[in-house]
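Standup, Tuesday
Yesterday: got the pipeline producing structure tokens again.
Today: sanity-check two examples.
Blockers: none.

Example 1:
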Amino acid sequence: MPPPTPRLFLVRHGETEWSLNGRHTGTTDIPLTVRGEEQVKSKAHILVGEGRPIDPKNLCVALISPRVRAHRTFHLLFEHLPEPPAHIIDESVREWDYGEYEGLLKHEILARDPQWSIWRDGCPGGESAQDMCSRVDGVVAKVREYHRQYFEEGKGTRDVLIVAHGHFNRVFISRWMEFDLTLGTHFNVEPGGVSILSYNHSSLDEPALNALNLYADVK
């Protein structure tokens, strides 16, 4: 009998002041709001722990964005347990670099460039759409290699955890399923939301989205 199908838990950090008002937050280190912390803590007991979907003993690796909002989200998820699992602070799962558009609202960007779409144009002084696609594809390949080693060679354990950001996660979901990056615009990931990515028919050749925005505060 084959082992259980491997999974990736993809988490967006909780609410910040800038995510609340719609400012593009890439490299700026904004903390969680009080409500953002509660968004994470309220679902931790449901999702995280022995016998729960995110069971520390099943995590072969946890990749965490270096931004404080993501790192804090990770620790809040495991705060009710004796200790958090080992984790890696990984620049490759940081948010899209918005360059000159850092901190701006969408209407402020459109005032500069009325035809702008991040999915096509990227950000001047930051990452282009191709830059973002290449970076995310590298993370997808890394996760799939963890999964392959577990599923085909019996190395490690079943699950991977990533705690990251809104645009990163939307791009990741799209590229995981081998869609064009631009289709990420159709996947809304809410603050504190948890997505599950896995495979159909226990086949690593059939990547799939199993869940989106588990227990998030959906607007």
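Example 2:
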Amino acid sequence: MDQLRRFIQWDAKGILEKIRLCLIKKLLPDWEDRRKYHEEFASSTSFHGVHNIVHRRSRARRALWLLVVAGCLAAAAWQICSRLSYYLSWPTTTAVVVQYVEKVKFPAVTFCNLNRFQAHAVSNLKVIFLIWNTVSAILQKFAMEDKYSQELKDFLLGNQNFSIKDFTRQNGFYLNSSTLLECDFFGKPCYPQDFEHVFTEYGNCFTFNHNDLSARRVSLSGRGLHLLFDVQQDKFTDEPALGYTDAGITFVVHPPQELPRFDGLGLLTPVGTHAQVAIRQLKSIIQEYPWGECKPDIKLQYHKIYSTNGCLLECKARYIQDWCGCLPFILPGNGTECDLLKFYKCVYPAVYNIEIKGLCTVGTHNSTCPAPCEETDYPTTVTYSNFGGEKAIKYFSTKLKKSPEYIRQNLVRIEIKYHDLSYKITQQQKALTISELLADVGGQLGLFCGASMITIIELLEYVFTNFCWMCIFLLLKAPEMPQWNNPSQNQPTQKGKKRRIQEC
């Protein structure tokens, strides 16, 4: 065993000696060749100023050129670091472009009656208003007072099979020829069947130009959608104690692909008024993180396009379905519909917990629902006037067979039209792109050092060559492979050391 180990050690020693001899003869040039290589590099490199340091005869001029080159290198390094620091701050600029077109898409408009329920259906069921507020608390913030909670509990215990969805659909506001007296879109008549039913915090609401229809376009500003509503205050009512004290129509303008959002965004038109609404189309384009706050890879399961409102609804639906084992009908998704008892005992507290704990957040890139990369809004300008002069009141009074007082207390006219045939694009852009950063770095190197990409490659080749020579030199100075069996043999003689140093 010892003989085998000794044989391996001697064999390894022989291989190491062969490697050293090969390095000395073929790879490591002598001192004179290395000196010539350095001089040739200094003379031929495209890095300006180096040849002046090497080839000037005067030491003072050499020192001067050394200071000049060092100063230029320092200035270039400072400028490059400054540009890199600016780039890593992810700066952006905002470009605003107004695009004029021949035709522009008309948005969706959702209308609701401020009096949510038919009076005869809720005359003996005041608790219906509380129930609907509990259901619609998913869409808006609603705090139930203690004086109403016991009344609601008693009703739920005695009517466990009661469906507020079916009740609202049948006994809420409806849209037919008696409530929609006139409808005209760009000179063509429209009818109640052109509107799509949707549930909101106002109960039954109706959307014109909803997503399932082909896109409607207008080719002339000042014309659009003209409507005349009869809110029928004698047939529809609400609960003033809960804050619903107005009479009229509320509406919201939104993209056809998105659900209406009334919370803080609805426009109110009281009875006896004529509202003229001028809209503009505003498209916002936001950069992805880290320049902006959007995430382009986020997709919604039950909405065709991403929006923060749709994302919030789907987020709430997921948490409620996990906690309560059911899904409110007012939220998107597929699941078992929550009954009223589940709404009161589980869904309503779950929504409260989502709000308090911040489980569904909006805004920044690391929130549950970050800002959309592309968004379309419709800023509005609304002007109001009293509905109808004396002749108009008499005309509608005769036509509808209603008294002039009824006309003033129930009719609402709304006109929605584009301000002009254009849309504004607000685009967030990168203030410094990769190509611009490379151009800046190249400009600084060229200005202070006369360097380019070829120069950088030359320098890398020069450094790599010297690094290889240094490694070979250190390898030749390294001690021989140790022999563990005979420590005395591991120590080379002083003469051997000198001979190897001389060879190097």
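Quick observation on example 2: The chain is about 45% helix and 20% strand. The longest strand covers residues 411-430.
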